[in-house]
Amino acid sequence: QVQLVESGGGLVQAGGSLRLSCAASGRTVSSRAMAWFRQAPGKEREFVAVMSSGGTTRYADSVKGRFTISRDNAKNTVYLQMNSLKPEDTAVYYCAARILGSSWQMSDYPDWGQGTQVTVSS
Length: 122
Fold this sequence. Notes:
By secondary structure, the protein is an all-beta fold. Helices cover 0% and strands 50% of the residues. It has strands at 3-7, 10-13, 18-25, 33-39, 46-51, 57-59, 67-72, 77-82, 91-98, 111-112, 116-121. Strand 7 and strand 8 form a beta hairpin.
């Protein structure tokens, strides 16, 4: 099992940028598929981005070209760089991990962080 702690959320104006961090302990991020999901008020949690243990990335269509997932193995941390933010990006962002290959399905991930709030004002 891996423990995950997200940080970096906050309030930003539309068009701005934020970088979220997900610090892992207990297991190394390089041995796992690491993903970001988000949940807006009144909506279901949705897939944002994933990086496989081999470094392959995949993004939701809604964030493709604006968000970038990356990993620092030395710091055992995964990042989500979010650029050109829109009000519809407002949500609680969660980091998740799984041992097997990358997946966009929330139910495939056993390990989750507590989430960090991102609010984008118009």
